[in-house]
Amino acid sequence: MTRPSVLVARAVFPEVVQRLREHFEVDDNPSDTIFTKSELMARLAGKQGAFTTGSERIDDEVLAACPQLKVVANMAVGYNNFDIAACTARGVLATNTPDVLTETTADFGFALMMATARRMAESEHYLRRGEWTRWAYDMFTGSDVHGATLGILGMGRIGQAIARRGALGFGMKVIYHNRSRLTAEQEQPLAARYVDKATLLREADHLVLVLPYSPQSHHAIGAAELALMKPTATLTNVARGGIVDDAALAVALRERRIAAAGLDVFEGEPAVHPGLLEVPNVVLTPHIASATVATRRRMADLAADNLIAALNGGTPPTPINPQVRAASGGPG
Ligand code: DGY
What we know:
Radius of gyration: 22 Å
CATH topology of the largest domain: Rossmann fold
Mean pLDDT: 97
Bound molecules: (2R)-2,3-dihydroxypropanoic acid
Oligomer: single chain
CATH superfamily of the largest domain: NAD(P)-binding Rossmann-like Domain
């Protein structure tokens, strides 16, 4: 019996690729080339499975060109690189990697918010430039995190994990806005208050974005929203590029309409809006919120678990569109 073929679209832990080889014919990409769309379609042709990351867009054109494809397993919790409606319509199971990165991403989101509030990048650059010659009472004065109001837009697993750090570790008041309100049992230990979006923007001292990207959340933070924020407030984005209008943010930072921003994700990344590179009051990191060795390994293992289960007739642990399996009786 011929074994299923899978594409591992980006370089990933060799041990995980080896595990996949125990089950499949594997076409991997150890040189870590980022495929163009036509290269991706050519490499995927005739294969039943794909191990992807956020850099591979799986849309209807790709699916149409690869009719043998049964499962696409994303090594990421976010899956805005997948057209889920198209996957479902074509009977392709899509999976992601939730939960395994929640605490790691929350650690990073909190750290980025603190670095932003306390001007860590800006002051480090000053020191490296050799400009530090004496102490001054107002040198790099920032804003407190402890006791401040933490605003969270998008109160899913990662948002709640950041709220826990703020409420329980730093005595912060937590306000949030989300598509749906948490239960009283979830709100109560954090004393979290559900507010409308305008109130969130007006009241937060430190606003953290943790919502998924979708056409509905495109530019959820633009010039109008930034204008509602306090001039002393900070904005941290560990969600997705495109949720913030980066051009509008660069202007708001330049004109000090808000105090500072911490950004791990960008519109059109890895390109960064030039206006953001010109302003000092922003901490910029290259989409690394989930990047610890242990968590990246857990994400890769979970993506592999999904592929193996889906193509061997098992139950994938974290499907995005489980109705595909239910409807087809299994893609294997
Ligand atoms: C995710 O898992 O969605 C992270 O952004 C890593 O890509």
